[in-house]
Amino acid sequence: MITDVLRSRRAQHQQWADTKRVVYARFLTSLAQAHSRIAMAAARAGTGPDRVQAVHDAFHSDPQHAEAKSVLRELAIAAPDHIYEAAVPVYEQLRAARDMLAANAVSFDAPEYQQVVQPFFTGLEALQRLMRDDLQPPASRRV
Predict the structure, then answer these.
(1) Is the pLDDT at 83 greater than 80, yes or no?
(2) CA nearest 78: which of 25, 118, 11?
(3) What is the SS3 assignment for 64?
(4) CA 117 to chain centre
(5) What average pLDDT does the segment 102-128 reach?
């Protein structure tokens, strides 16, 4: 009976880890793809209202139905608090990049755009490390 209980706990832990892995991957992918879509929309669009609409549409229209804000909500349910708290500023930084691309006809190498987008990429990498560490077995986690 003890063996069955231990096996059941191990299976539940593995199932929960698998669920988190899927949500983590979906969130990281949704952020990266949203950035790519807004960058392409900004590059193709002119200026003014057309650009604003194109960038905002690109941000919100994910062909895989995994819009970043929706997956952030999934993350709020599945992830530990420290992961979710690290994810929110990354999402907000992507929104800041979106808003800059939508409002201004800035180039991608412009210093003002780099000041907004570099923290997004840095935060994305740090979030990925936190998520990867969270998925490690307790004995092999970094402290």
Answers:
(1) yes
(2) 25
(3) coil
(4) 14
(5) 88
Average of per-residue pLDDT values in the chain: 86
Tokens for 8, please give them. Answer: 């059941």
Neighbours of 64 (CB within 10 A): 9
Residue positions counted in the chain: 143
Specify whether the backbone of 65 is left (phi greater than 0), alpha (psi in -120 to 50) or beta. left
Residue 29 has what pLDDT?
92
Residue 65 has pLDDT above 70, yes or no: no
Residue 124, class by beta-carbon neighbours within 10 Å (0-12 exposed, 13-18 middle, 19+ buried)? buried
Whose structure tokens read 């936190």? Answer: 130
Residue 140 has phi, psi (to 5 degrees) of -110, 10
**142 band by pLDDT with thresholds 50, 70 and 90:** low
Burial class (CB in 10 A: 0-12, 13-18, 19+), 4: exposed
Q: How many Å apart are CA 100 and CA 50, to the nearest integer?
A: 14
Q: Which helix (H) or strand (E) is 119 found in, with range?
A: helix 111-135
What is the C-alpha to C-alpha distance for residues 125 and 1, in angstroms, rounded to an integer? 44
Distance CA(122)–CA(111), nearest Å, equals 16
